[in-house]
């Protein structure tokens, strides 16, 4: 007995020693991939200054808030998934926006009881209490090594000196310009002279530089108290919004245990609620695990995956919301037995109509997109996968005067009315109903996939399709491919309702579409691509790093660098 205990203890020590040695053995180089080259440069600048991945993540986030205002910002929120190599520790920093204290379940309903879409997405009433600045401060103070002022310096410089308009900024502004014009002071920042700027024109944001400077100097209080908070609250209230100084004082970042699951020998560390992404990805992988996906025809593979997607999105609508407000049956949703039960209803020859998968019509909700993602890894092997958002492009399209901060329209990610699909066709139920201080359900799915041979850090924007894009990226990684491949995969998607497989142009051949239609699927070919995936990969066997950005937009910046810390 004593011998056995000694042997077990020796094994444990050996395992621990191996784990520490393995964890301490980083790639030597660093890799950063974000939606904008200037934001990637900001991350590299901080790494070269001696910062770690977490420092760099703050710098990249703040820089994106300046140079990609259509996708994220100081007025928005996000999820930062951190992995620390020294002790193999992972955490999700939840900087999701919250509903103001004065929010009510029916605040977006009109007199006939329908959803007033304009109030739900345009202007100050659409804004949740921002979480991004509090998350930057939290990450810097808890996990970083450099002062916040250093981490925000590149963003402040970019706000002051300006950045050049690119095709993505221009395209998304074209979509939102008519709303922005309602508030001339807002339009003046993003549309100098009242026009959508030409590619290459410079956008300067001096008020945003001052706001970021206040944050750099005073930390959290530089944004959530004092002059900046007062200007934000005054501007929002003057245009019909609900924010108060108490809402700002009450805002808290939450550290959440990531969702962990495994697939074909790889460990997945992914987003926890209030993201729906991690649970849905885990569920879909569990459902498809027994199938030989790579040995099937492409049409059969799309069929099996679409059926898994359909079932996971049904459960997303039924069960998921802010875990601080609703009980989420995570254990059940991720269990092998539950997946096996769902699999018994999956036929290889027939699509299952969504109407045959029960959903409680008392509980429908919603949510949406534009958003950004970055992935990075430092020379020690610390990793960050972060997806950030203001929701629709340029958020609510309103900036409280004197702040430079675009208000998000994240309140539209709540279920404004049970069963009512949102702009992205997503449905939800009471788990995601509006309540004061509650976080709205999200699809943002920052993910890290850890294997003995290779590790992937990936994610993407794309509203309801984020989850399925990340799923396809994970499967492609596990099939042996690198980030150049994951970020440029042709995409297909099913989200339970509407009951259709939507595909990017040219994602499937005519014959493949026909084969899916023969099984009973409706296949809808969209007229544009979606997402903007950014990934990095560490090949632990060769020691090499790879980084890639989605080629569908050419503004991204993906680099592998030898860090020469100064
Ligand atoms: N606003 C997009 C999301 O959180 O999923």
Describe the structure.
The protein has 566 residues and is α+β, with helices and mostly antiparallel strands. The chain folds into two domains: 29-83 and 95-256 and 376-432, no CATH class; 259-355 and 445-562, Serum Albumin, Chain A, Domain 1, CATH 1.10.246. Helices cover 37% and strands 15% of the residues. The chain contains 19 helices and 18 strands. The protein has helices at residues 2-24, 37-48, 53-67, 117-121, 132-143, 148-161, 167-180, 184-190, 206-218, 221-224, 226-238, 245-250, 277-288, 298-319, 330-333, 336-344, 466-478, 483-487, 510-518; strands spanning 30-34, 77-84, 89-95, 163-164, 202-203, 254-256, 259-263, 266-270, 371-377, 383-389, 447-450, 454-459, 492-493, 501-503, 523-525, 534-539, 545-549, 557-561. A seven-stranded antiparallel sheet has the order 6-3-2-10-9-1-18, covered by helices on one side. Strands 7-8-11-12-16-17 form a six-stranded antiparallel sheet. Strands 13-14-15 form a three-stranded mixed sheet, covered by helices on one side. Helix 3 runs parallel beside helix 6, helix 6 (148-161) packs antiparallel against helix 9 and helix 13 (277-288) crosses helix 16. The chain is globular. Mean pLDDT is 92; it is low at 1-24 and 360-369. The structure holds glycine. Glycine binds at residues 367-369, 371, 389, 391, 410, 413, 442-444, 463. Glycine is lined by residues 367-369, 371, 389, 391, 410, 413, 442-444, 463.
Number of domains: 2
* Ions, cofactors and other bound molecules: glycine
Strand order of the largest sheet: 6-3-2-10-9-1-18
Oligomeric category = single chain
Low-confidence stretches: 1-24, 360-369
β-strand amount: 15-25%
Count, helices: 19
Number of E strands? 18
Gross morphology: globular
- What does the average pLDDT come to? 92
Please bin the fraction of helical residues: 25-40%
Main β-sheet description: 7 strands, antiparallel
Structural class: alpha+beta
- Distance between the amino and carboxyl termini: 55 Å
Over the alpha carbons, how many angstroms does the gyration radius reach?
A: 23 Å
């Amino acid at each position: 007995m004593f011998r056995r205990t000694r042997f077990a203890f020796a094994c444990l020590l050996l395992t621990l020693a191996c784990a520490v040695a393995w964890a301490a053995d980083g790639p030597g180089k660093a890799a950063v991939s974000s939606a904008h080259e200037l934001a990637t440069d900001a991350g590299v600048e901080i790494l070269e200054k001696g910062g770690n991945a977490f420092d760099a993540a703050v710098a990249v986030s703040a820089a994106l808030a300046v140079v990609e205002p259509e996708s994220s910002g100081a007025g928005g929120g996000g999820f930062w998934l951190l992995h620390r190599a020294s002790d193999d520790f992972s955490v999700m920093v939840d900087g999701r926006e919250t509903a103001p204290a004065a929010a009510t379940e029916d605040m977006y309903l009109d007199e006939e009881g329908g959803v007033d879409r304009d109030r739900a997405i345009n202007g100050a009433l659409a804004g949740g209490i921002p979480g991004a600045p509090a998350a930057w401060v939290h990450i810097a103070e808890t996990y970083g090594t450099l002062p916040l002022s250093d981490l925000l310096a590149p963003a402040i410089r970019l706000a002051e000196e300006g950045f050049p308009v690119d095709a993505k900024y221009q395209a998304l502004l074209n979509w939102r310009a008519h709303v922005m014009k309602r508030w001339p002071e807002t339009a003046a920042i993003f549309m100098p002279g009242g026009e959508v700027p030409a590619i290459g024109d410079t956008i300067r944001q001096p008020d945003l530089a001052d706001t970021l400077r206040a944050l750099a100097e005073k930390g959290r209080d530089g944004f959530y108290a004092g002059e900046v908070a007062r200007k934000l609250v005054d501007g929002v209230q003057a245009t019909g919004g609900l924010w108060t100084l108490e809402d700002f004082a009450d805002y808290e970042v939450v550290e959440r245990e990531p969702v962990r699951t495994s697939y074909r020998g790889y460990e997945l560390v992914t987003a926890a609620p209030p993201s729906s992404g991690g649970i849905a990805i885990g569920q879909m992988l569990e459902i498809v695990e027994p199938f030989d996906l790579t040995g099937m025809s492409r049409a059969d593979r799309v069929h099996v995956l679409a059926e898994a997607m359909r079932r996971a999105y049904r459960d997303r609508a039924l069960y998921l919301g802010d875990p601080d407000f609703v009980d989420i049956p995570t254990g059940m949703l991720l269990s092998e037995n539950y997946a096996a039960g769902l699999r018994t209803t999956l036929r290889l020859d027939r699509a299952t109509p969504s109407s045959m998968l029960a959903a409680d019509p008392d509980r429908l909700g919603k949510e949406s997109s534009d958003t950004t993602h970055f992935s990075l890894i430092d020379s020690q092997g610390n990793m960050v996968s972060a997806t950030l958002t203001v929701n629709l492009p340029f958020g609510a399209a309103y900036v409280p005067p004197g702040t430079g901060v675009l208000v998000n329209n994240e309140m539209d990610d709540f279920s404004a009315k049970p069963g009512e699909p949102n702009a992205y066709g997503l449905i939800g139920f009471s788990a995601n109903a509006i309540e004061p201080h509650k976080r709205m359900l999200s699809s943002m799915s920052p993910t890290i996939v850890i294997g003995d041979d290779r590790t992937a850090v990936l994610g993407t924007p794309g509203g309801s399709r984020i989850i399925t894009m990340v799923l396809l990226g994970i499967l492609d990684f596990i099939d042996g491919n690198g980030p150049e491949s994951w970020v440029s995969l042709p995409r297909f998607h099913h989200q339970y309702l509407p009951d259709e497989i939507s595909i990017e142009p040219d994602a499937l051949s005519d014959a493949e579409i026909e084969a899916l239609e023969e099984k009973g699927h409706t296949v809808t070919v969209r007229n544009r691509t979606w997402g903007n995936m950014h990934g990095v990969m560490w090949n632990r066997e060769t020691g090499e790093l790879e980084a890639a950005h989605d080629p569908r937009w050419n503004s991204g910046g993906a680099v592998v660098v030898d860090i020469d810390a100064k």
